[in-house]
Input
Amino acid sequence: QVQLVESGGGLVQAGGSLRLSCAASGRTFSSYAMGWFRQAPGKEREFVAHISWSGGSTYYANSVKGRFTISRDNAKNTVYLQMKRLKPEDTAVYYCAAESATAPGRYDYWGQGTQVTVSS
Output
């Protein structure tokens, strides 16, 4: 199993940028596809981005496509979410998660989350 810890959240004005990091423990990190999710107060958690185990394939929600970039550095056991041209509607707690190898679409491990606030 892996343990995940997000960092890099904060307050930024609309149009600005932030880079979130997700540090993972364990020697099997490179075996997991990873995803980023977010949840705003009073709303359901929503998918943001996904990256394959090798980093060669990525997928994004339409709401962030063209603005956000997911990447990973397996040597550093870290996944990143580079967020650009941020909008107030991007305000949420952001979570990284590791996808199950036996049940596609199910995420077995989650971080504690990091707050991103975008002001107008």
